[in-house]
Amino acid sequence: MKRAWLLVVVALFAPRATATEVADLTASPSHVELQHVERAAATETAQDGVQQRRYTFLPAARPQIVVTPAQGAWNWQGRGELRLRVQNAMPWALTLVIDIDGADAASHLHAVVGLPAGPAQTLVVPLHAASPLAFGMQAGPARPFDDNGRRVLVATTVAGALDRSGVRDVRLSMPAPQAAQAILLGRFEVVPGEAALHDAYTAIVDRYGQYTRENWPEKIADDAALRAAVKQAPPAAPAAGTDRYGGNGGVRLQATGWFHTQKANGRWWLVTPDGHGFFSLGVDTVKADDTRTYVQGRGSMFRDLPPDSGPWAAFHGTGDNRNAQQGAGAGRCCDHGSWFDFYGANLYRVDGKDWLAAWRTRTLARLRAWGFNTIANWSDPALGAMHQLPYTRSLDIRGAFGNVATGYDWWGRMPDPFDPRFARAADAAAAQVTLGVRDDPWLLGYFADNELSWTAPGPDGRWALAVGTLHGEARSAAKQAFIADLKEKYGTPDKLAAAWGVALASWDALDAANFPAPEPDEAHPAIADDYSVWLTRYAEQYFRIVAAAIHRHDPHHLYLGSRFAVSTPEAIAVCARYCDVVSFNVYADLPQHGFDAAAMRKLDKPVIISEFHFGSDDRGPFGKGVVSVDSEAQRGAAYARYLQAAAGDPDIVGTHWFEYVDEPVSGRLLDGENSHFGLVGITDIPFRGFVEAVRKANAELRQGP
């Protein structure tokens, strides 16, 4: 019989020297409130002989179990971990939310864990805020591990703060289940220390860079198995029906000797130098040195790390990735010091001292065999120079020019294109990147910058660049340009004040740092109008300067845009005027769900999806990428659906997968990101099922969409 809620009681036991027992959820009822949860009448015996009781979470917004003290509050001073015997009773993974409440709203801890199907485990929740960033990575171990014969699942991400002297309840809930979901619960206690949290990160990386606590088909145990798996030949590369650049031989368009764009019969195309339609199937970051990971400060994480002497010395080094203005990886430990390159070391194990040349040959053969026709952004320049696949180049515009904070700032603040130093930096970057390639017909074109912070999260995020400009210091070139525009439009400060509904005694008031720029509202439509004009002006200044720099140093090749991750309509419209192709990094189930396809159709400009991927957490690295699927087996189907949707859009001219190699289990140098979404693992062994699905999907489009 279903109930909205039921009050039951759980027997409490006296504290022990090493643990304080909060409750035994298999015992007779006391001090537990069930809200949209049913409790079985009888206990069940688990495989290890332990008694458990079944609790079924019913369909509701937030079904939960609330455990409270017999009286007053618990005093957990001196205790570091909450431990709960729990087993998922369903044949699929479940999400369990744990909330621990203190005496007031400021005293609260919150954790979310994934309960895998299978045997019971001890769920451990640290009684303080915890994050994988404290261990140098963005995602922590999310699956149970064996701790001397006991399965342990640690909540590695815990938010909040708890006054342990007065704990009033523990709540277990599920987020809006659509059908009844059952778990089995047992003893519930708090213990001193935080051994389980540290154990979750101890000795988790083996000498090959693999996660030590799980197995999967591509995992290897010795050098012989590594060499055999890496050197396994890929299927034969496709040959018929394409020109030498990989273009569709059946789609004849204008031949210019360079890659260019052309619209024919209502569809946009990239066009090869020989004049054939080209749908760019690319892979990002095809390089052998992008998987380094910091070891300094966390040596206990690595098991059998090769020494920093002899042949292994080449794979050790030092670096520093501290950046106060960059949101990515903010707050992580171990972001500088000594590092190790597991991927390079594995390539050395396979091919010896000539490993890099062997890797380049093997990698190009693989990409061609898997149906790719483009070496995309951030890849090894030597691969493009081998003229087996077309390639792209990227301008990374850096310098001592000013910047504007929008609040997004994931990779840093927006460059200030009104600062004269920006134009000089753009010109220097263009001169450098075009060197030796401006006359190469195999070059597809140039990207410039990546995922700039044109906007910010939230309902008013669209205006963040305008607000951020006015928040800047008086010396900001962008701010002075914005103020000059406002002076030209309004003439006197009182007219601007009236239009915006703000107090403005003089124009000098705008010069103040952190000027309180108003958010647009219905009562003052001029604010949104003026901000929109400024966003257009800002984008115009940026894209005009960058386009001029590229074309000044290379008049032949395409400007492929700046790889939008966040954007405004104003920035996209201006980009379409100055760029040959507008590029979007679209992390979504389908490309059309990540950018405004209807707006692009009106702008009548071709689009490249410059990044996308699908990840899972069952091949070593703990992260599942930006867009995740439940298992490795589902990645290939997701790739095929995405590719079909892209090819069916007459404006999309290519898709570029991010990325070639899995990220390190312990996190990459740049920001600690550690996800599984590669075509190959840290051992350079392809993920066979996935790459076969990719090969089939690419083959269907090899002749063009």
From TrEMBL:
InterPro entries: GH, Glyco_hydro_42_N
Domain Glycoside hydrolase family 42 N-terminal: 477-589
Enzyme Commission number(s) from the entry: 3.2.1.23
A Pfam short name: Glyco_hydro_42
Top-level taxon of origin: Bacteria
Alphabetical keyword list: Glycosidase, Hydrolase, Signal
GO molecular function: beta-galactosidase activity
Extent of the signal sequence: 1-19
Protein name (database record): Beta-galactosidase
